[in-house]
Amino acid sequence: MASMKTELKKVWQFLRSTEFWRMAVLWNLSILYSYLVLFFERFLSLSIKHRPGTSYSYERASSYTSEDVVPLCVITGATSGLGAAAALALSKRGFYVVLAGRSRHLLLKTMSEIKRQNEKALLKAFQVDLLSVQSILDFKNSLQLWLQGSKMHPSLQLLINNAGILATSSRSTSEGYDQMMATNYVGPFFLTQMLLPLLKNSPFPSRIVNVSSFTHRCVFDVQVDEDTICGKRFVGLDQYPCASIYEYSKLCLLLFSYELHRKLSLENGSNKVTVVVADPGVVKTNIMREVPTYLSRVAFTVLRLLRLLQLPEDGVNSILDAAFALPETSGVYFFGGDGRTVKSSAWSYDTKLAKELWAMSSNLFLKSQIAIEGGTCS
To answer: Which keywords, in A-to-Z order, does the entry hold (predicted)?
Structure first.
């Protein structure tokens, strides 16, 4: 009885918050907008060449493998939900899948489940905590050592930055970052920078897939400064703006993706590294675990009735579309499955903002490398 009262109190407090109504209204409008774009494009049967602002169906490559190299994939947040679903699907396509996650127990459990469904799966697990720059560096070093000691080619063909959280309370990492910003944006930025040499060393085209969210469309005021990226701006507020920070972190991931695409496209070389974004839509995962249970159940029920809620095995299709789009595909936003894309928000294509964010993030990355022990976001 006491636990029920406590839960109901949490529900009431959350219902009274601005963040709840932001999630309930703006997030639903954003997902509906994305699907409406796809619906009207299909309804009008536009069979024209892709142009900015229109949806387009990209064919999947028939093969992502080489006769001489077993393709290697790294997936973050691989212990459940979309990450686990992607790991299973990619193992069936011949990838050697590296599962990266915080919990050793869950990593082993996920590997066992994948093996049960695909006994021929090639799997390797590494513990990595995206909240810690030291942990990311240790993961990169461990991955390189493993590659050196194996018969694998010393390269990486596919990086899927899938890990993400929706935190409802303010928490900081040991290095001074807001945990949600660190998991959803800063960690993926640092990890990508550290693994780029392996991606560039691939004997055939390699790819980065960043998993973003339709919620990025709800950002109406973009601030690119160190305090915002680190999360210091949100410390001490009467109410932790969880929905706003989640949206902002996903927009940052988009700005980073498009800027990295622009930078890589200018580099010479036959085997390009491409960057694409995948938006799975609304998927029933444990990302809502910090939202009061009663509210998350109601939300999932409503979304299911609206036929917007997907299970991970269906939602993963956008990630697979992004992973297997033809090698020359880069800088696009996959949404809705069937190889379809839509245009992301206008803010996400702001090159000035993207360059500012890149410079700020790169500076933090360099400072973290120089003084990784005891380093703080200052």
So the answer is: Membrane, Oxidoreductase, Transmembrane, Transmembrane helix
**Which amino acid is present at 134?**
Q
Extract the residue ranges of the chain whose pLDDT is less than 70: 1-12, 14, 16, 41, 43-68, 268-271, 290, 294, 371-378
Given this model, what pLDDT does residue 376 score? 52
Query: Which residues on neighbouring strands pair with residue 341, listed in sequence order?
Result: 56, 334
For Cα atoms 118, 66, 79, give the angle at the middle one, nearest 5 degrees: 35
CA angle 209, 210, 216 (to 5 degrees): 145
**Amino acid identity, residue 194?**
M
Helix (H, G, I), strand (E, B) or coil at 226: helix
**Which of 67, 71, 75, 115 shows the shortest CA–CA distance to 94?**
71
- Residue 49 is predicted with a pLDDT of 44
- CATH number for 68-376 (one of 3.30.460.10, 3.10.129.10, 3.40.50.720, 2.60.120.10): it is 3.40.50.720
Q: In what order do the strands lie in the sheet with 56-57?
A: 56-57, 340-341, 333-335, 273-279, 206-211, 158-161, 72-76, 96-101, 122-127
State pTM to two decimals. 0.91
Task: Determine how many CB atoms are found less than 10 A away from the CB of residue 365.
Answer: 17
Q: Where are the domains of the chain?
A: 68-376
Q: How far apart are CA 316 and CA 56, in angstroms?
A: 18
